[in-house]
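S1.2 Input.
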Amino acid sequence: ESPLLQDGPPGDERRAADVRLTQLSLEGRMLAQYVYRTDVASPTQKGESSDIGISEILAASDTELLVLERSGVKLARGGFRFRTRLYCVDLQQATDVSSFDTLKDQTYRRVSKRLMFDFDKVPAAGNIEGMAWGPAPGSGRRSLVFASDNNFFPDVPTRLLFFSVRR
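S1.3 Output.
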């Protein structure tokens, strides 16, 4: 979800973070690594803390990924507030950084990303942390399924959200 220790601090409400995305072969061999820059985490009030990270990645094509980015705020009164966004990431122009021991003091080009959906538009979406391709509903579309995590709070439901998307 966050940067490697040698690459820099995790993102918070003051700074974004550079996170490595690792491309693996079917046998588990590393093929390449690319750098993804998170957004800045959600703002906080006194007594709260905030983080941000990548909670899920899904291949959309040979060169594009869907990245689920989630910011969580631990509220002073207890519980959490979440901001989740879905980005489409393009690897084509990004630098392969797999040979870098650290990203510090290196020159590289990050993956490009564009916002596909902001889950703040879905009332009570919760802590969205998972996604997968679902069954095809037909007519050239496919389904995209998102799952929330209730963080073991008995009064917080786990939700499944289904979207129909064009191929």
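S1.4 Remarks. The beta strands are 18-24, 30-37, 49-59, 64-74, 80-90, 112-118, 128-133, 141-148, 160-166.
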